[in-house]
Amino acid sequence: MTQNNNSPVSRSNDPEHIDLLALMLQLWRGKWTIAIFVFVFIAMAIGYLSIAKEKWTSRAIIAQPDAAQIATYSNALNILYGSAAPSMLDIQTRAIGRFNSSFSALSQALDNQDVPEKLTIEPAVKGETLPLTVSYISTSAEAAQKQLAQYIQQVDEQTAKELALDLKDNIKEQIKSLNDSLVSQEKVAQEQKELRIKQIAEALKNAEAAKITSPRIQQTQDVTQETMFLLGSDGLKSMIDNEASRPLVFSAAYYQTRQKLLDIQNLNVNPDTIHVYRYVMKPNLPVHRDSPKKPIILTLAVLLGLMMGSVVVLARNTLRNYKPKA
């Protein structure tokens, strides 16, 4: 077997036989060429790292609000609907559900901007609705943490205002309904009063027709509509005057309705006292950036430099030692 300094492959009768030792020698002799390629690719990687836009992700974990965070809203619903009001657990679940919907809407709006922003919300545990993980990607760790906290607060305030607005609408409807109920009860009481006076007036006519002026019955509790004329015309006239001057008589339900109306009219729920989420983990300050990954990029640069340099060296030697067959 013969070999010169420029021969990439040892002479052999087998065309598919490759002399690995000769191949390694070629690469060794072209080490400076390979080193230049490695240097160039590393320089390109460093240049890319210097101009590439960094991405840092801040994350937070949230869950449904505590009872104290939603207490004013819950108390208002209890006053409005009494025993028909939703339970505290239902209110907490609805609150975090509305937060999730509003946050998702904000995420889509930010993603559709001319300069998109990456804001996401998803279950922290696969298959579970709560808790939720929210994240935001920015060009620096501090900016990602700060902006995520601001977006969470923004959605919380917006959702609280929506709940308070819904509550005000419900209060208006309840006040109208209770006032209508009071008017109806007052009308019924007035009709009952007028009916009572008519009954006494009818008994007075009978008493005058029978010329009964003084009571003819001793036990007044036994008096019926048919026997009322026995009380005498004088007594019946007094009863008419008394009934006409008496205030309307209402049932206990009327006063309960008025009490409920006053309680509802005094409701004043401040959105600042409503919070629809609870932090399990506040927005963190990321330690490692998402991209660009410096170690990975530099490693790839070295590998690509080695590969390209080796290809150039081997191709150059192959062309240099190529001899066409006679």
TrEMBL record:
<feature type="domain" description="Polysaccharide chain length determinant N-terminal">
    <location>
        <begin position="17"/>
        <end position="120"/>
    </location>
</feature>
<feature type="transmembrane region" description="Helical">
    <location>
        <begin position="32"/>
        <end position="51"/>
    </location>
</feature>
<feature type="coiled-coil region">
    <location>
        <begin position="141"/>
        <end position="210"/>
    </location>
</feature>
<comment type="pathway">
    <text>Bacterial outer membrane biogenesis; lipopolysaccharide biosynthesis.</text>
</comment>
<keyword id="KW-1003">Cell membrane</keyword>
<comment type="similarity">
    <text>Belongs to the WzzB/Cld/Rol family.</text>
</comment>
<dbReference type="InterPro" id="IPR003856">
    <property type="entry name" value="LPS_length_determ_N"/>
</dbReference>
<keyword id="KW-0997">Cell inner membrane</keyword>
<keyword id="KW-1133">Transmembrane helix</keyword>
<dbReference type="Pfam" id="PF02706">
    <property type="entry name" value="Wzz"/>
</dbReference>
<feature type="transmembrane region" description="Helical">
    <location>
        <begin position="296"/>
        <end position="315"/>
    </location>
</feature>
<keyword id="KW-0812">Transmembrane</keyword>
<keyword id="KW-0472">Membrane</keyword>
<keyword id="KW-0175">Coiled coil</keyword>
<dbReference type="InterPro" id="IPR050445">
    <property type="entry name" value="Bact_polysacc_biosynth/exp"/>
</dbReference>
<protein>
    <recommendedName>
        <fullName>Chain length determinant protein</fullName>
    </recommendedName>
</protein>
<keyword id="KW-0448">Lipopolysaccharide biosynthesis</keyword>
